[in-house]
Amino acid sequence: MTDAIGRKRWVIPEGFIPPQSMINANRALLSHEAACLLNAGDKEAHVRITLFFTDREPVGPYKITLGARRTLHLRFNELSDPEPIPPGEDYASVIESDQPIVVQHTRLDSRAAEIALLSTMAWPAD
Amino acid sequence: MTDAIGRKRWVIPEGFIPPQSMINANRALLSHEAACLLNAGDKEAHVRITLFFTDREPVGPYKITLGARRTLHLRFNELSDPEPIPPGEDYASVIESDQPIVVQHTRLDSRAAEIALLSTMAWPAD
Amino acid sequence: MTDAIGRKRWVIPEGFIPPQSMINANRALLSHEAACLLNAGDKEAHVRITLFFTDREPVGPYKITLGARRTLHLRFNELSDPEPIPPGEDYASVIESDQPIVVQHTRLDSRAAEIALLSTMAWPAD
Amino acid sequence: MTDAIGRKRWVIPEGFIPPQSMINANRALLSHEAACLLNAGDKEAHVRITLFFTDREPVGPYKITLGARRTLHLRFNELSDPEPIPPGEDYASVIESDQPIVVQHTRLDSRAAEIALLSTMAWPAD
What we know:
The structure is a homotetramer. By secondary structure, chain A is mainly beta.
């Protein structure tokens, strides 16, 4: 049940942080974009994220540690080191881990009065 | 037409049960998260679901029986043994079966006045 | 450019035809569920769809012909032979073709005043 | 970090450009359909897109150049050569590249007062 599951490199070509949210949204309903990571194995995973843009060089790595037998629903909005991601700018991400993980991409967009959702499994690149 | 189709282990990294629903929602429009399972084969499938969390040990197995040539659109909200899943908490799931099955992940979110939907095929892990 | 592309068997575990639509919706905005098929090759494809349910035996085949170098965005709502699919009932589908095709699943839900969308690539089963 | 990642041929069976948008939408909220491309490698990629329709022959290629280590969130609405895509017509696309890329499909539909989103990884065909 705690076998390591997944791959060590995943790709999400679609990245975009909506620049607004509905008025008075709490954190759950704030517009956000997430990479949901699962480390089902018994070893801590060290994850490095590189971001790609339309007209400038890649930025990264953003470093994340994901405990054994843990999930992390990582919000790209909350990344800050080496630099925050500008809302409203198209980007893509490559997610590399030293342990097998599984990655799913989700966005909640609350720019309008109601929310919209999208999700897809990331692409296993190795 | 009734060949066994699919895999025996599937992963859904993104799990989240919206903590509210629109007022007066009937069951169809209640916020929910589902794993849609298809057992196209001629043998009953015995399914075990393990849940992973952000900062505590995995919980499970949740046990489900899926008849031959049947589909089950399982709502995570309705799981109760060994324990219900707290709404509003991030989780991930690993779904294991003794027969090949196919698994798709869907969420209906009716926290706002309108509904939002997401869906993706789960990740085949074996 | 007109190579045959894809697989001969695809699975969509999640099927559900929303039982209502917004008032006065035109066909484009009617609640519907679609399997989008692409036959990129030079031979006509003969497609057979079998539907699976929660508590009764499978129904089918529903037979579709898909021309060479053509796409068909097939609405499950509009299938009628051997029998229409009851709105509001959970189902799953297996789509088989004598030529390679690619299949994507989409739903437009207009039960509320606004629309919601989901989509995922179907699962290639062969 | 700048390895070439992905495949050279991708398929998106579901294509549809919503024929309207909400009133006064800015570009970000205009109804649109996008193929998000990532070229993580060190060589410029030359991409050719062919469109398939329900009842007429394929159109293309649409030619795109994608720089090394760059992403492009290509809106189908904005393609014009050899011809624009008629809004409201079902289509499908095959995307071919001379370098490995990864492709994700996204639609933002703002025909109603609120937006709806869908996304899925394209299907890697080679």
